[in-house]
Design a protein that fits this description.
The chain has 16 helices and 13 strands. It is of the alpha/beta class.
């Protein structure tokens, strides 16, 4: 298998999940609530904040040529309107370290976590967030833009509607039979503890009010209203405008969480409606973008009554969704039908303790990428999720997606065979 010259093959992380001590963020605050829905706090995470040089060097030694990571808004603007020069300098060092190691940095401006002050103002349902995000994007671009070729504005911008639908489904399932509640968590591509959220709802509301001034703070992964859904994409457009005004040469895009939606006989209308909600209705907001970040982990099946669970006997990941690496090729092809521009796979991976399973997943997924390239689909790169075992949001550290293991006591890095396998594709 070979990829064209300039094709990006790398790994991805998110700041909050790997850096540690992200003390000004909404997630940090919620992790420390007495009735938190998080299995454990993020704490020092993987200490990537201080160990990024070692981690980037491990990527380079394996042969990878790209690193998708996020800069942390809550670090850069810990108080509204006050930017921390030391923090922006930190990210300048990360970018330069990438360049020195022959790795292309793909920077994401917002990967789920927000400053606490933004949430106190109404968060991702407040009109003011559009201009707040524009100002932040302009600041980052002014300071770092000359060193960047690719910027993702917002990670999985469609996540809020997915979570709203799943929350509704979870409540129904929980009412019908408590033992089925875990199935809902396996239908979203992010670590969520819906069961614990339901149990803690009354207490968490009071505690959230104390921190955020509201019992239901609108963090980025809250269940989103249609108005909030549109607001997120207007924030993306505002950020893109700010970036292009300063550095028109930067390639700007957004990333979406996309499932391979498959219809069994009688399920076609359900699958089509789901694709409209998950992807098609965003087309007016993204048609002018330089690229689209495709993020896929699994498939979803639909029958005559709607969404179905994974097939009987199917292998499941640690996140309780089906192991189905073929999904990536299917999603790329379907996205290309409506979005003819450049695509970058910004996340694709598997939560498993079995690295041989990860290696097999990688090989199948990358074969699908090669098939798409051979058919002329404009794919620019593939970033595996994730570089290292990290903090999987509400699930804590139990989920292992990484190409590198991290000892939770010593923080020692232990590259897995899957890192070498991915590197072989980058070297080919």
């Amino acid at each position: 298998m070979s990829f064209p010259n300039g094709f990006l093959i790398g790994a991805a992380t998110a700041a909050h999940q790997v850096e540690g001590n992200n003390i000004h963020s909404d997630y940090w605050a919620q992790e420390l609530l007495p009735h938190s829905s998080f299995a454990e706090p993020s704490g020092i995470a993987c200490d990537h904040y201080h160990r990024f040089e070692e981690d980037i060097r491990l990527m380079a030694e394996a042969g990878l040529n790209a690193y998708r990571f996020s800069v942390e808004w809550a670090r850069i603007e810990p108080e509204e309107g006050r930017f921390d020069e030391n923090e922006i300098e930190h990210y300048r060092r990360v970018i330069r370290c990438c360049r020195e190691n022959g790795i292309e940095p793909l920077v994401t401006l917002m990967h789920f976590t927000s400053p606490v002050w933004l949430i106190r103002k109404g968060g991702w349902e407040a009109e003011s967030t559009v201009e707040d995000f524009r100002r932040y994007a302009a600041y980052v671009t002014e300071k770092l833009g000359s060193d960047l070729r690719f910027v993702c504005t917002i990670n999985e911008a469609n996540m809020g509607l997915q979570l709203a639908a799943i929350s509704r489904r979870f409540r129904l399932m929980a009412e019908q039979a408590q033992k089925n509640a875990g199935q809902a968590e396996g239908t979203v591509q992010v670590g969520m503890n819906f069961r614990k959220m339901m149990e803690n709802m009354k207490y968490a509301a009071q505690e959230n009010a104390g921190i955020f001034g509201t019992p239901q703070p609108q963090i980025f992964v809250s269940s989103r209203t249609p108005e909030g859904d549109a607001l997120v994409f207007r924030a993306h457009q505002a950020a893109k405008e700010a970036i292009k005004a300063l550095h028109p040469e930067i390639q700007v895009g957004i990333t979406l969480s996309l499932h391979d939606l498959q219809a069994l006989p009688g399920g076609e209308s359900f699958a089509d409606a789901a694709w409209d909600e998950e992807f098609r209705h965003y087309l007016p907001y993204i048609q002018g973008d330089d690229f689209l970040g495709v993020q896929n982990y699994t498939r979803t099946l639909y029958g005559p009554q709607g969404q179905l669970p994974a097939p009987e006997g199917a292998a499941l990941t640690q996140m309780d969704y089906e192991v189905y690496p073929e999904a990536l090729e299917h999603v790329i092809r379907r996205v290309h039908e409506d979005f003819p521009g450049t695509l970058i796979v910004t996340e694709n991976g598997i939560g498993t303790a079995d690295d041989k399973q990860r290696q097999a997943f990688l090989r199948t997924a990358l074969q699908g990428v090669e098939n798409c390239l051979n058919d002329g689909i404009p794919l620019k790169g593939y970033c595996h999720w994730s570089l290292m075992d990290n903090f999987e949001w509400q699930k804590g550290y139990a989920m292992t997606f990484g190409l590198i293991a991290v000892d939770r006591t010593t923080l020692e890095r232990r590259p897995k065979e899957s890192l070498r396998v991915l590197g072989e594709y980058a070297r080919s």
